[in-house]
């Protein structure tokens, strides 16, 4: 059964080689939000993809997630390339995958969150809640997060691309 998401035709803009969503025979599209949730909640690290000066850039980082999966949060020192790139071009992608716990190649799952990232001001009302999300997964990073040279970002997720078995792709907008 093809993905019933009305925006799935937009997937060709993100995955042009696929020509759209490939149905996942092992699950229906209503299972995708739960599969995305389980994958995200089971991982502590992600890869952030940014762009600038006509070049892509990837960074490994710790992250947190809101209960509704609409927000991913991460921290970075203000002196980093990723900080500068996000301030210039906030559109970003975050890849979270299960390769660290998958016993075999075809068991690996991945999800890409697409959206725009914004720095949260420590004075804003949303900062403390976002910091709690971040520290819930990585409490040992509290001194890093609280350092004056560190910035906390929120990625507002517009959509997720969930991939299983290297070819079963589903799009989901939370």
Structural notes for this entry:
The chain has 174 residues and is of the alpha+beta class. It has a single domain (8-172), classed as Pnp Oxidase, Chain A, CATH 2.30.110. It is built from four helices and eight strands; from the N terminus they run αββββαββααββ. The chain has helices spanning 32-41, 81-88, 127-137, 142-146; strands at 45-52, 55-62, 64-65, 71-77, 91-97, 109-120, 150-164, 168-172. Strands 1, 2, 3, 4, 5, 6, 7 and 8 form an eight-stranded antiparallel beta sheet that branches. The chain is globular. The protein starts with 31 loop residues before the first helix and ends with a strand. Residues 1-27 have low confidence and may be disordered.
Protein traits:
alpha+beta, 174 residues, 8 strands, eight-stranded antiparallel beta sheet, 37% strand, 20% helix, Pnp Oxidase, Chain A
Q: From N to C, what is the helix and strand string?
A: HEEEEHEEHHEE
Q: CATH topology, what is it called?
A: Pnp Oxidase, Chain A
Uncertain segments are 1-27
| CATH hierarchy: architecture | Roll
Shape: globular
Count of structural domains: 1
The CATH C-level name is Mainly Beta
The biggest sheet, with number of strands, parallel, antiparallel or mixed sense and barrel status, is:
8 strands, antiparallel
Radius of gyration based on Cα positions: 16 Å
Structural class given helices, strands, pairing?
Answer: alpha+beta
Number of strands: 8
In short:
The chain is 20% helix and 37% strand.
